[in-house]
Amino acid sequence: MEHPNVLVFVEFPDPTVPTTGFLKGFKYPDAEVVGFYHLDEGESAETVRDAHGSEFDSELEAIAERFEQEGVRAEYDLVFGQDRFAARRQIIERDAVDAVLLPGASNTLGKVLVATRNVGNAERKASLLDIVDQDELLAIDLVHVADPDDPEGESSGEGILKQTASTLVDVGFPELRIDRTVRTGSDVAFELSQAARGYDLMVLGETERDLGDRIFGPIGEYILDERDVPVLILR
Length: 235
Fold this sequence. Notes:
Rossmann fold
């Protein structure tokens, strides 16, 4: 993945901004910083833009400059709407985004936790090394959540993690820095949020629940809300 395009999605009026220490761990991506403002029923984008547009644009420019200072090319845009999931999906499809970053409070990018659901996305997880600077990483741990009703769930999960770890090693990541854990639980979002304690970044593969499910709520945003850990969703 050469110069992957990362959508950095922040919400106004109080956006969470990636810290300088966190950004130092990124390696050669292009960033698209999008600020989203939720319109209440009856509220118009024109009214909000007239009242706060210049203020929000200045904040977005400052965020983009923070990326630029760390060697990450960045553009920015401000969008309005009543559905942030639909807005995010539209941008992802329009701009062929490779990954989505939901910023959190991490000040470094040394410990990364990668959630792995199946063997099929192992190579996509390995593409993490094209976004995160390997030299900054202290550990890249893998986690799989097994179905408690599946008698072979844990053993299957161990196999998935082993193959994912092998893929990471094949692309140059030191095997000694990789740890593997299988958790068992019916609530995947809860199990992953528990596993994310103490990490600087949580990496997920794309699912409808991460990018737009309004019924159960996106897993990525649940983890961010519970742990304030940044989440990177790989497509």
